[in-house]
Amino acid sequence: MEDKPVLQIKGLTKHYGKLTAVSHLNLTVEKGMVYGLLGPNGSGKTTTLSSALDLIHPSSGEILWFGESGSSITRRQIGSLIEQPVFYPFLTLKDNLRIITRAKKVSDNCINRVLGITKLLDRKYSKFKHLSSGLKQRMALAAVLVGDPEVLILDEPTKGLDPEGFSDLREIISEQKKQGKTIILASHILDEVEKVCTHVGILKEGKLIQEGHVKNILSGKDVVIISGDDLEAISEKLTECDIIENQERYKNEIRVILKKNHTSGDLNKYLLDHGLVLSKLEVQKNKLEAEFLELIK
Amino acid sequence: MAKIISIENIKTFSSNTFRLFLTLHLTFFFIVVIAISGIEFSLGEVSVLSLYKFRNIWEFLPWIAGQFNLLLAILVISLITNEFRNKTFRFQLLNGLSREQLIAGKIWMIFTISFYGLILSFGASLVCGFLIGDEVFSWDIFQKAYMPLAYFIQLFAYLCMAAFFAFLLKRTAVTIIVFLLYLFPGEVIIRKLLFSNWEQFFPTKAMAGLTKFPREMSGKFEHAIETLTNNTEQINLIVSDLPLSFNIVLSLVYSFVFILSSYWILKKVSL
Question: Are strands A199-204 and A34-38 parallel, antiparallel or unpaired?
Fold first, then answer.
């Protein structure tokens, strides 16, 4: 079991009527990975995770947890937050967590621990329906941590969190990462994914279009923001330029993605050679966001 | 199984819907029992008070309780459809329960409510037999004391049927409406039009046959009601002519079919 991947998805396809939400998806998450699942809305992230957790039935494909077909026993080793927090609204936080401790066959002692981590201890006897959306999200995180699971699946975990909650979440993920836990994180907050994830998979229209180590995804292509007096002429000249991959106009600036092994200096020289002077040339750190936006185009 | 019972108990007993419906059920039941006992009606050897005497009361109070099954069915429908509405089936599944265990939890909930019905009908029969029927203790009073058990089976089967509708339709209001339409006129039309020779074997008919107006008194009461109301049509207080044991088997078979169908639906549905 040690050598087997934590999660293996083989040829997953899910149709909703005529719509194909996920198509022949293959994905492997090894132990200790912090795997970021990225994709625009409707790209199939939640469908993929829901299928993996047996919440929805795939049209075809195989899902293996720890090398075995998903069972309730393996699911007890997984803490998951899918879409919005779901609890019994009329129960207190303690009673909601008691349901989880029983389902996972763990002691009630961990209730105080997880409520402490998520700073909800003073709301232990509040009914879930009386919590604000941010606190509900914290409660969902508390539920994920019950039983100290081997795997954490977090689908948009920052939804509804205030900046403090955001920072707490980052801390929780870092702590779990340090403990060697496997984390699968689907998020729109790319900066967040870039900070915490070791691996990234990018989904587009239900297909995995890019996957690998974050460092490999950030392939070394530079993003340069340029500006000048005659933006139209600069933009036109860039269309003929073979050292750039893409350009995008933002108000009075142009965002340029350079091809591999080309620098901002090369770009400046090219434009100067064509009689175009830049008033601004700013090299941006190569961000996952830039890569992501490029890939999902 | 212990963890499923524990989980279901935490949810059910903390639910306001559960408390409200049980309070309503208890209140209506006792109002009707006390109200009927206050009717001063007697025609020859037929009197209302005779219904409260042992052994009649073992049949009479479960029969009265059976008239309020619908209230408990609505409770079961609410508790199940709320799980779909609040997405709490998903919550349990995410935390390691299987779909089989989700169904087992609901069977336990139905069993608990049916057991409440058993205790209520047995306890009320015993107490009312002494207090209203003015009987004194002897072992003979326990003749027909098995009738609350028949009511328990009736209620269990009836609630399984309600649960099946809830799993099938998932929305509270829609389920209650369809369930009511099935009870009347749905099943009645199907029985009368299509299977008139097999009427007794239909679910509600078989279940209704488990609680009977006291058999020894039914003929006399039917005659008395016909006389008092000048009714020319025959009054029939006994809904099923099949033996009790046959209705028990039939109701248990239906319970099994409804549970299995509910499980099949839950197995197929995306949560």
Answer: parallel
